[in-house]
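Service request form, structural biology core

Requester: graduate student, group of Dr. S.
Request type: structure prediction, single chain
Budget code: on file
Notes: please return the result as structure tokens.

Sequence provided:
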Amino acid sequence: MTDTQPSVRLQLAYIYDFPTVAGLLRDTGARRIDSRLFVLDQPMTPSQVLALVQLLQFDRKAKTPAITLETAPRLSTTAYWDREEETLAWWGTVDEKLWLAEQQPPAEPAL
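Core staff response, request fulfilled:
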């Protein structure tokens, strides 16, 4: 099996709010590979990830969504089930006391 660089392809349709969509797309660091096709295939900074999330949220709320995403490799839920123990160990790295506090009923006020 060969490792492939993960990538996200963003295919754009008609853009109603061009300045916002184009600005957010630029802020993601996406490279244009065709007139309406962009690719994200390099490591991203937190600000670039934020721009991608904002772009997707903005597009989802639009009357006519303009962005179609294609990821490579495609999502395989089997891969996550195969690493379930690793995921559970990672999940457990959060301070357990915080989780316990959320599960406890509120303390009775002292009289």
